[in-house]
Design brief:
By secondary structure, this protein is of the alpha/beta class. It is 39% helix and 24% strand. The protein contains 10 helices and 15 strands. It has a 7-stranded parallel β-sheet with strand order 6-5-4-9-12-14-15, with helices on both faces. A 3-stranded antiparallel β-sheet has the order 1-3-2. Strands 10-11-13 form a 3-stranded antiparallel β-sheet, covered by helices on one side. It is globular.
């Protein structure tokens, strides 16, 4: 069986079974585990499935399951970099901001100017990026329990810390954002942290690529009336009108503006 044909069949199999192990795929397709892992890596890189420890998971089965950080980082990377640059341009000297956890906010950290600002984050990768490359940034980590495979700190310690601060800008990561249902998240623990962040921010800036628009997942974070600005890579005109009607300013790249 040719590689392209095999990968197509693997994709169908994963979508049908929702979550499968590498050894199972090896038996079904009568090929080595090494070959199956390479196929999974390639399908994951294309954003067609999600690679998880020991196997793969269908995109349609991600409703309430956290995606590993490495898988998130590979999905829609060009879109996330575009969003990161747009959002970073909103950061001004002497701002006090929260950078929420996530692969999109990580791109903001990479792109933000090296100016005097204070950044609070619950994301270890965001913190490492700022500590190693932005010498004018005052970095504050929230503490808390580190969630396995996603490098995010969550729990009551994070919420308690956030409740004692005030920031002028929050850059909020989103698992899903809908013009009617608002923002939702796959895990309850992270959603509670996001809600606390929203409560202490003067301006809330949601960041998400177009694949998350019009979606809803497990736990409701907030309605759109809690969001001031939405930064994305592209959005349909009709959906943009609905966001703006709800009072949310939508920012997209110049070449995607009508």
């Amino acid at each position: 069986m040719f590689q392209t044909e095999r990968q197509s069949k693997i994709l169908d199999y994963v979508n049908s079974h929702k979550k499968v192990r590498t050894k199972e795929l090896s038996k079904v397709f009568r090929t080595s585990v090494v070959t199956i892992r390479a196929d999974i890596d390639e399908l994951d890189a294309k954003g067609l499935i999600v690679r998880v420890h020991g196997g793969a998971m269908a995109l349609s089965d991600r409703f309430n399951l956290e995606i590993p950080s490495q898988s998130k980082a590979r999905q829609n990377i060009d879109s996330k970099r575009t969003i990161g640059k747009l959002a970073a341009n909103m950061i001004e000297e002497n701002d006090i901001i929260i950078l929420d956890s996530g692969s999109t906010t990580l791109e903001i950290a990479k792109a933000m100017p090296n100016i005097p600002v204070t950044v609070i984050t619950n994301d270890l990768k965001v913190g490492l990026t700022l500590a190693s490359s932005k010498r004018n940034v005052t970095l504050i980590m929230t503490g808390g329990k580190v969630e396995a495979s996603v490098y995010t700190m969550s729990g009551i310690e994070v919420v308690d810390f956030i409740n004692h601060i005030k920031v002028n800008k929050l850059f909020l990561g989103c698992d899903a954002i809908d013009e009617v249902e608002g923002i939702s998240n796959r895990t309850m623990s992270e959603a509670r942290v996001k809600q606390a962040m929203i409560d202490v921010a003067v301006s809330v800036i949601a960041v998400a690529d177009n694949s998350k628009i019009g979606k809803e997942v497990f736990f409701h974070v907030c309605d759109l009336d809690k969001i001031n600005t939405f930064v994305t890579d592209k959005i349909a005109d009709k959906k943009r009108e609905l966001f703006e009607a709800a009072g949310v300013s939508v920012i997209v790249p110049e070449n995607n503006r009508k």
